[in-house]
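Re: export button greyed out
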Amino acid sequence: MSTTAVVAMVVICGVVWGGFLCLLIGALRQEGSKSSAAKDSLR
Amino acid sequence: MSQAETFGSRWGLIIATLGMAVGTGNIWRFPRIVASNGGGSFLVAWVVFLFLWSIPLIIAELAIGKRMRQGAVGAFVGLGGPGFAWMGGFVALCATAIMFYYSVVTGWCFRFLAASLSGGLADADGGQALWDSFAGHPASVATHFLALGLGTAVVWFGVRGIERVAKILIPTLAVLVVILALRAVTLPGAEAGLAFMFTPDWGALASPKIWLEALTQNAWDTGAGWGLILTYAIYMRVREDVSLNAFLVGFGNNSMSLLAGIMVLCTVFAIDPDAATKITGQSNEGLTFIWMPQLFAEMPGGSLFMIIFFAALSFAALTSLIAMLELATRVLIDLGLARRTALIGVASAGAIFGLPSALSLPFFRNQDWVWGVGLMLSGFFFALAASRFGLDRLRCEVINGEGCDLQIGRWWNILLGVVVPVEAVTLMIWWLYEARGWDPEEWLNPFHSASVGTVLLQWTVGIVALLLLNKWLARRAAATAARSSQGLAS
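Workaround output, generated via the alternate export path:
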């Protein structure tokens, strides 16, 4: 495989899969803080 | 809306929506289109249109469903007034017409899964022999009914049933596709597949065809602009986010496509190094049901991986079929029917109107062509109706409103109000122009399988019927909306 192909693979997979993982982590953190806030408001 | 009529959690909504988006288009169309359009160059354009088509429309559909709490017809009346009912009707018509033949496709996947389990595809010619004796023959009617029956059984239990099934099938599908991709990249010679898929030809990016194919792939495989995401968004919790979930669905869908591309192209190139020219000559069904079994038959441990492949394809198809059944059912509920009566009506119509596609491959291809292009008009209607409602109003009141995790700026107004309509119109014109070249003598003949004439005739019949019914549709949807809000108030 040429260097260009490897770089393209890293960039494209990085954007798509990396983007998905970052968004997933972001959503998990938001859900965590929302449920903590909901518990606090019940106390 | 009672708790039983909403998704139990954010993950329920995301997984069900991903189940809708990830379908056979990701597994059988994406690798073929990547291979036919220059690999890496195509992928660049495909990522660009994730941002310029899919995500703006997914945000719009989620926001409209959350705000209107009605299916396609009622939501369009809520957005643009009674005059927009027929547009919502066209969106529902497109998705429902696709459902009629999609259950046939799901049935094919089930049949090939059964054959791979029983060892019926062990010979190199097993796939071809089964395809020739099955697709377009009465035997495929039984699997068409089976697929519809399974989908109906899930939708029977409402959104919680859909959520429960998606929570099992979608993670399983993801694991199966990852296993297949890992196996594919570890095959001797798989490197050629990766090189073919990712090596960019920068000169090819000057060709409009690459960009139009990339846009088409986004339009067909993310489910954006079909009305299906809108339908699931009806069941969002009140404090649910729109924008972050939309990005997750768009990226999640394209992540699966990328995995499927790696899986198919590495397998293909590992078994047959001269594969490039052969793939481009295949149809979607040819690559999946004839060629893939041949490749698996030649691969060490191939029979196990063939089972995994057809199981993944079956799960992907079934979860998309479930969403299409729910869309049509929800439209009938909004017109005043009880859920189960509506579902029985939809399933019966699916069983009857799917028969011609089960029995005739030319008819199946005709429907795939007519309503596939129709989806672009659906996307255009979404942009039009949202603009009529007010893009700033939708963005400020719903997208950036209660439960928002990711604020969306005015860029979304420009994308949905200007870029998406331009893309939709360009795509429709391009596809119809391409079709003119497929059969220069008969391109206007409405009785040809893939002509411009057949698209124009079927769209015209559908739109005229919907225009005639427009007042009735708008009145019924408005009456149901009024009853729902009275119920909420009391």
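The CA atoms of residues 9 and 15 of chain A lie 10 Å apart. The button fix ships in the next patch.
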